[in-house]
Design goal:
Blueprint (H helix, E strand, L loop, with lengths): L1 H21 L2 H27 L2
């Protein structure tokens, strides 16, 4: 079971890295920016939900 999960993880991570490496530099920065914004909103949502309890 654990081996199949590891295989799936490596397969998808390799595909994502190939896709990311195939992008132009400007698009790579755009993807990183979007990931940072998404993480920021998720963290702020969890912090605000904890504060308002």
């Amino acid at each position: 079971m654990m081996e199949s999960i590891k295989d799936l993880y490596h397969q998808y991570s390799d595909r994502i890295l190939q896709w990311y490496d195939g992008l132009e530099v400007l698009y790579q920065y755009g993807v990183l920016f979007l990931l940072i914004v998404i993480v920021f909103f998720l963290v702020s949502f969890f912090i605000l939900s904890r504060i308002t309890k």
